[in-house]
Amino acid sequence: MKELFLGLMSGTSLDGIDTCIAAFDPQFEIVGTHKGDLPDDLRRELIALIHDTSPDRRGMLARIGELDARLGELFAQTVLDALEQHAIPSTAIRAIGSHGQTVWHQPLGAYPFSLQIGDAARIAERTNITTVADFRRRDIAAGGQGAPLVPAFHAAMFQTPTEARAVVNIGGMANITLLPPSEDTASVSGFDTGPGNILLDIHIQRYRASAYDQDGAFAASGDCDEALLDVLLHDPYFALPPPKSTGREHFNAAWLDQHLNNPRLSPADVQATLTEFTARSIAAAVDTYFSHCQRLLICGGGAHNNELIRRLSANLRSTCVIESTSAYGIEPDWIEASAFAWLARQTLLLRPGNLPRVTGASKSVILGAIHPASSPYQ
Ligand SMILES: Nc1ncnc2c1ncn2[C@@H]1O[C@H](COP(=O)(O)OP(=O)(O)OP(=O)(O)O)[C@@H](O)[C@H]1O
Ligand SMILES: CC(=O)N[C@H]1[C@@H]2OC[C@@H](O2)[C@@H](O)[C@@H]1O[C@H](C)C(=O)O
């Protein structure tokens, strides 16, 4: 049996727990995937914690502690469900790389930090599999923003000496990885471009019994309002130079509401405008920092939003080929969970997982805290 690693990713969309079981020797191969459910009550509590509107006003620390424990149990069960689904024994998994659930990302200021919860000790204890977690802390300790971390994986999977490629992850937030034609990851750059699906999800959930705008159909039924679009694109985040990262702390329902003040716009017009806004902010990042891009690989759930991809293509000045990462053997939905399987492997091999040029860290560092399965001395 090949040496396997398991990646766990619960992202800012809070749409579920992506699980990926992968081998890396002799080459990368996804052996199995699994999507764990995030119960509605847990999702509501996480959103309440992130935006501090808890229904029962319990102390913040108690809510964080309990959610950390509940998520740890849930992530552990998700691992067990994934292994059962694919009939893989836990002894075949060398390590789990668990991103956890980001509840606050504050990469700037006197004491920058990024808080992911989902107790990794519980994951290791319940699964008896060595679990690596808390990946962002060491990069921040080395002066970085702790995000984005997937560019190192994108480079390992997609960088080639013969073509200038960019990878765009369209998750709740969107981030890009710029891969110059090279075999040297020192040339790789990347950053968070701004919102991905987050505003599209928030808006449609107010008007449809749908978690997201399936294929972008709601947006396609409306008209983009240029005045609103102009206001959205003038958010100060877009003028910041890289390295930069963002999250729900900035782009969220309150941010959206403070910009929606034109009652003449229909819900579909707003959805169309938010979709154009997301597409244009991603396209501007590529055109500004990677105008010679030859191939753009799309991943993340936003890769399924046909209207968003159509608007991205329309806004890109560079004449690059646009395709999903599935063209390179990795389905867009599984890139991030695969990345955390890969990051866990990097850590166990004592190899660095960050790219200082991406995060702003002073150096490459080994990421994560290791929770061993069990003591070899027991
Ligand atoms: N068929 C579809 N049509 C339109 N949008 C879709 C479709 N399928 C998924 N999505 C979008 O993808 C989102 C989930 O994407 P993904 O799982 O990459 O997010 P995430 O990992 O939580 O985000 P992040 O990368 O910020 O951590 C959904 O919330 C939805 O907006
Ligand atoms: C703090 C945090 O969770 N950031 C996420 C978010 O979602 C997409 C983008 O913003 C990215 O920077 C990051 O996650 C991915 C996995 C990353 O670190 O590359």
Automatic annotation (TrEMBL):
* Identification of the protein by name: Anhydro-N-acetylmuramic acid kinase
Q: What is its EC number?
A: 2.7.1.170
Q: Which Pfam families match?
A: AnmK (PF03702)
Tell me the lineage of the source organism: Bacteria, Pseudomonadati, Pseudomonadota, Gammaproteobacteria, Chromatiales
State where ATP binds: G11, T12, S13, L14, D15, G16, I17, D18
* Organism (species): Acidihalobacter ferrooxydans
**Gene Ontology MF terms in the entry:** ATP binding; kinase activity; phosphotransferase activity, alcohol group as acceptor
> Catalysed reaction(s)?
1,6-anhydro-N-acetyl-beta-muramate + ATP + H2O = N-acetyl-D-muramate 6-phosphate + ADP + H(+)
> Which keywords accompany this UniProt record?
ATP-binding, Carbohydrate metabolism, Kinase, Nucleotide-binding, Transferase
Q: Which domain of life is it from?
A: Bacteria
The Swiss-Prot or TrEMBL record describes its family as follows: Belongs to the anhydro-N-acetylmuramic acid kinase family.
